[in-house]
């Protein structure tokens, strides 16, 4: 079965900013795929559409055989339960404990939210949370407040929280963009190992080509909201990079262009 | 040629000019109508001197009943503020864009909160005295309304400026609305809510001391009675006790805020 199916998705913001234009691809169960593309090429928008945070203007998305429709809240929640997300900014709740943050990963599975509060959670759930923390190697930090952690630790806690969902798909939007190289490698190794050991489909947005080549087999490149390439990572060479990102560094936008518009993005890259 | 620096003085627009004129007009007529004369100023100073002369030494003979009125004032403020804070949380959730996507409901609750805030507390007190009769219950209701007007507004502003990422992270786990609110929005907002609530308590204590003037319970009843009976030494004692209570509450609340936030 396909884990992810994206069918001719078009996304237009404010009736004029085209963020995605006719994007289609399918990803099989257990695949590890990386999304590449310049800033503003629509990568995050694609992820937000996959998880129902944005409704596609046209086209459709199917995760694990279930159609994603932001209008059907209940159905969407059921689908989200099996999809773990990892974000560049971690998304931890700062002023509660690490343990509590991990427990919140089970919010989708309980009938009443208080069943995930450390105070009321069942022994089984508390044990599972500690197992997830242990899997990311941070069981000893369970009582620490989440804002008293390094970036690398925060991302691993976020991964532990996601493990509480027992996900079948992991979507990671620039998971290491705010980490130093060492912490970044550790997080990537962790994600890759977890995906491999549980046969999880892994889709991640990355900016560094070498890391993409190391951790994925296949890549999908977006350029100005369209699929520019969908291939094996081994085909990425310097010529390809130039074609995708342009040969020069980002230029200042021309003064008469409205910042953020697609035309300007296209010209400056 | 070097570029010219901006002008030192921008010519005001016609509207700001009119506004300035209107304000000046009110200033002049206001001062005029208040009938301020040198003799009245001097007379006023003398009268206050008179008050002080008769008020000293303050009379502590009725400290017992006064203290119980003071306790009643404090209790009114505490109960009213607590009720107001508790009600403010759902009201704030309803009036925030982050937590309520139904714009009609948002406008409705925001409107209600604006009414609670803009109608002065003495007016509310008068209304509640009519509704539930003289005494502290009217005072508690007044303080509750006043606290909602204050807290719900600041709570909802705080909710709207929270970092949205933890909220989305919890939504992405398949959590329902209640889980997202209690798992991310409320924990993130709690420090600010506590600070605002303590400010509200300070405000309520000050407010509660004068609610008695319109019969809504508390120490104000005593104060206005002693003043109109010209028992200035008793009045002064009441003022001193109010001062102490307000200072103590402000001090404690400041310490809690410094520690917690
Ligand atoms: N909420 C929004 N409202 C309006 N336009 C948006 C919104 N979100 C994104 N866009 C626009 O859509 C386009 C794609 O943005 P997106 O964030 O998906 O790019 P990205 O590939 O993730 O970029 P980056 O590498 O910088 O993260 C951009 O032109 C952006 O300005
Ligand atoms: Mg992005």
TrEMBL record, chain A:
Region (Disordered): 244-269
Recorded GO MF terms: ATP binding
Record keyword Cell inner membrane present: no
SUPFAM superfamilies the record matches: P-loop containing nucleoside triphosphate hydrolases (SSF52540)
UniProt KW keywords: ATP-binding, Cell membrane, Membrane, Nucleotide-binding, Phosphonate transport, Translocase, Transport
Bias (Basic and acidic residues): 249-269
Domain ABC transporter: start-end pairs: 4-249
UniProt xrefs under NCBIfam families: ABC_phnC
This protein's name: Phosphonate transport system ATP-binding protein
Organism for this UniProt entry: Salinicoccus halitifaciens
Automatic annotation (TrEMBL), chain B:
Recorded topology in the membrane: Multi-pass membrane protein
Keywords: Cell membrane, Ion transport, Membrane, Nickel, Nickel transport, Transmembrane, Transmembrane helix, Transport
Main location: membrane
Domain ABC transmembrane type-1: 70-253
Superkingdom field: Bacteria
Residue ranges of the TM segments: 12-31, 76-96, 122-155, 175-201, 208-229, 235-253
Compartmental location: Cell membrane
Species this protein is from: Salinicoccus halitifaciens
Protein name: Phosphonate transport system permease protein
Family: Belongs to the binding-protein-dependent transport system permease family.
InterPro entries: MetI-like, MetI-like_sf, PhnE/PtxC
